[in-house]
Structure formats: structure tokens, C-alpha cells
Design goal:
With about 350 residues, this protein is an alpha/beta fold. The chain has two domains: about 170 residues, Glycogen Phosphorylase B (Rossmann fold); about 160 residues, Glycogen Phosphorylase B (Rossmann fold), CATH 3.40.50. About 30% of the residues lie in helices and about 15% in strands. It has ten helices and 13 strands. The strands form two sheets. The protein has a seven-stranded parallel beta sheet, covered by helices on one side. Strands 10-9-8-11-12-13 form a six-stranded parallel beta sheet, with helices on both faces. The longest helix has 19 residues.
């Protein structure tokens, strides 16, 4: 069974999940073919903070290639996929992805296409679709053959913290980690923190942007440690190790919620606020806990205060989250589910 994954190199959830699936296949003794084209490289958009650079995870694929764990192929034309001798092509849809692999529909019948679908639309060609959560399927019809398989999440790669002395004064470290994109960021995080006595917490804000800094100042939140977006997995792991509680407050919600799952994998409790009601809220099924997923800012603040006040509650929720993440989201567990889908399509 020759497996090819067509990937992109941005720092979004779809890009990261696709990379983790490839790593999961490697963990199962598979040497997948990884293909990409010029569209795979991220470009600056109006959604980005104009003051920040465009980041890419391409070098992480190069590391896998150099370790002889994958084959890596640059394609100038989609038709070149037919020269790779593949049985299964995995693609991913993270929006309107007709641009990512142009004219893929003209290769119908050359191989089976499994699409990891992060946004629910079905115009792109696929013999089988994998969705990362049940939440994103509500109200959708005519999906064709599909299966729900969560995103693959990397285990902690270090036990180090960003700053071991950060809680020496007894404060709880609250963490926010997300891209700096305008469509993700919301000032609600600072509106909520106005309700919490600043003597008891420090905020680690990952994904710093000009508008987040302005809002922190506007709402009087001064105890903020700012960190710009990074592709470093060591940084992400150290960042998550450094916090006591993850605050997940995004504008839209999630079709899966990689950061929530990563915090769970790092044994951290989470408080997640529902986003735009027209958007999937998959963090509810990830956490499977009504205490950690709330729909109102007031309830968020109330639960956060309880977590700040109780080390036992933080520890118990962190342990529960870790166990759930290991069972459902670890790379090898997810990869085995993908392999079953691939095998089923070829029998």
C-alpha cells in the first residue's frame, strides 16, 4: 500500500494536523510519500497582523526527509501525482481548497482519494472523507462515505518551562496560545480578566499582535507576558508546561481545536468559551466536560476563579484531560485509524 499525503506548510490547525498524521504513519512503520506544490507555502493575507512575518513548517518535513522517514516530492503540475506510483492520496481541505491542488478532479480513477476535511464543504474530489469532529457535521447533508477521526496531537517533547521562576511569587500562570489572525482573536479574553483580581495571576499570551496589545492596555490588563507566533515545537511544549490553566477564547470556535487538545496532552485544565454560534464548537466534545466548556463570559470567569483557588481541581482536571488525550488524540492512535480507512478502500 503506497500512501501519499499532499500537504501545506502554514501554521494553522489543518497544516499541523496533517504533519502529525504523517508522523503517526511513520510511527506505524510506514514511509509515506509527501507531495507539495507552490501553493503549499503560506502567503501574507489580510487576516494576518501586517507587522508579523509569514511562518512555515516546511523545515519540519525536511527533517523527516533527512531522517529517511518520508519521501518528499515537489510538484509543478498536479498530473505529476500519477508518476509517483501511489494507491492512496490523502488531501486536506481547510477552506476553499480548489486552489491548493488544481485540476485534481481530472485524475479520477488513478488512485483512491481520502480527504481530511476541516471545514465541511464537499466540492473537492474524494472517495472518502475524514472529519475531525462531529460538531462540524451538524446540519450538513449529502456528505458521502465518511468517518470521524480526531486530529493527531503530538505528545510533550520536553518537560522544561519557559521560565521556571515565573510562579515564584505564588501567582497562577494563565496561558493563551493561538495564531495572531484577526479572524481568531477576540478582546473577550481581556474583558473576562478584568473580573479577576490581578494579584493572583500572570497571563502568558502566545500569538501576540498589535490589536491584542492595544486591547490589553484598553482594559487595564498589565500583567501580560507577550510571545509572538512561533513554529518551534519545543517552544510550544515549554509554553504549555509553563501555564497552570489554558484560556481558550477565540472569535469563532473550532472545527477541532488543536491547542485545546495540546493543552490536554500536557495535563493542563482548560476553560473554553464558545465562539460564534454559526461556527462549530468542537472544543465541547474534545473536553467532554461542561465545567471546562462554557457559553457565557460570566460563567467563564466564575469557573476560572474556582480553578485559580483550587490546586486539587487543577490537578484532577489536568489528569483527566491527559488520559483522554492519550486515548483519543495521540499520533499512533490516529494513524492506526487512518490506516484502517486506507485498507478498507483498497479491499
Amino acid at each position: 500500500m503506497n500512501i501519499c499525503h499532499f500537504v501545506s506548510f502554514g501554521i494553522g490547525g489543518a497544516d499541523r494536523a496533517s504533519f502529525n498524521i504523517v508522523k503517526g504513519l511513520v510511527s506505524q512503520g510506514i514511509k509515506p510519500i509527501v507531495a507539495y506544490n507552490e501553493n503549499s507555502f503560506p502567503k501574507k493575507t489580510l487576516d494576518n497582523d501586517s507587522s508579523l512575518p509569514v511562518l512555515s513548517i516546511f523545515n519540519e518535513y525536511l527533517d523527516l526527509k533527512n531522517a529517511k522517514q518520508i519521501e518528499l516530492h515537489s510538484l509543478k503540475d498536479t498530473k505529476e501525482l500519477t508518476q509517483l506510483d501511489i494507491d492512496i492520496l490523502n488531501t486536506h481541505r481547510s477552506g476553499n481548497d480548489h486552489w491548493l491542488i488544481p485540476e485534481l478532479d481530472k485524475l479520477s480513477g488513478c488512485f483512491k482519494i481520502v480527504e481530511t476535511n476541516f471545514h465541511g464543504e464537499i466540492e473537492t474530489p474524494a472517495d472518502f472523507r475524514i472529519y475531525p469532529s462531529l460538531s462540524m457535521l451538524r446540519g450538513r447533508m449529502g456528505l458521502g462515505p465518511f468517518k470521524i477521526i480526531p486530529n493527531a496531537i503530538e505528545r510533550p517533547i520536553t518537560s522544561e518551562r519557559l521560565d521556571p521562576a515565573s510562579t515564584i511569587d505564588g501567582k497562577i500562570v494563565l496561558g493563551r496560545l493561538a495564531r495572531a489572525d484577526k479572524s481568531i482573536y477576540t478582546k473577550n479574553i481581556f474583558k473576562i480578566l478584568r473580573r479577576i483580581d490581578s494579584r493572583y495571576f500572570e497571563l502568558y499570551f502566545g500569538g501576540a499582535s498589535t490589536y491584542a496589545r492595544q486591547d490589553a492596555s484598553r482594559y487595564g490588563i498589565k500583567n501580560v507576558n507577550w510571545f509572538e507566533p512561533s513554529t518551534s515545537r519545543i517552544f510550544v511544549s515549554r509554553f504549555l508546561n509553563s501555564m497552570d490553566i489554558l484560556l481558550h477564547v477565540n472569535r469563532l470556535g473550532e472545527t477541532f481545536g488543536n491547542v485545546v487538545a495540546e493543552a490536554m496532552m500536557h495535563s493542563k485544565p482548560v476553560i473554553s468559551l464558545a465562539g460564534d454560534s454559526n461556527y462549530p464548537q468542537a472544543q465541547f466534545e474534545l473536553l467532554n466536560d461542561p465545567f471546562q466548556f462554557v457559553t457565557k463570559k460570566g460563567q467563564f470567569a466564575k469557573n476560572l476563579k474556582m480553578l485559580i483557588d483550587s490546586e486539587d481541581l487543577r490537578s484532577n482536571l489536568g489528569h483527566m484531560n491527559k488520559q483522554r488525550a492519550e486515548e483519543l488524540f495521540s499520533e499512533e492512535v490516529v494513524a492506526r485509524k487512518y490506516l484502517k480507512v486506507y485498507e478498507r478502500l483498497l479491499t
